[in-house]
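Notes from the 1:1 (GR / supervisor)

We went over the backlog. Supervisor wanted to see one worked example end to end before approving the batch request, so GR pasted a single chain during the call. The sequence is below; no edits were made to it. Supervisor asked that the structure be written out right there so they could see what the output format looks like.
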Amino acid sequence: MQETFSEEEIVEMVFACGIFNWGNKFNITMQMSGDGQSEYGTDMEYRQEALT
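Structure output shown during the call:
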């Protein structure tokens, strides 16, 4: 792998794999699906507040 990619690129790929793995585990835990058929509500609103 080091013959093809730099150390920085390898770190980025490992990080990306970790994030996708975490996201999948989170979605499974929350019983969310990407097809819009999950029981998880889609009407959530997030407040925008200024940071002080």
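Supervisor's comment: The chain has a mean pLDDT of 80.
Batch request approved.
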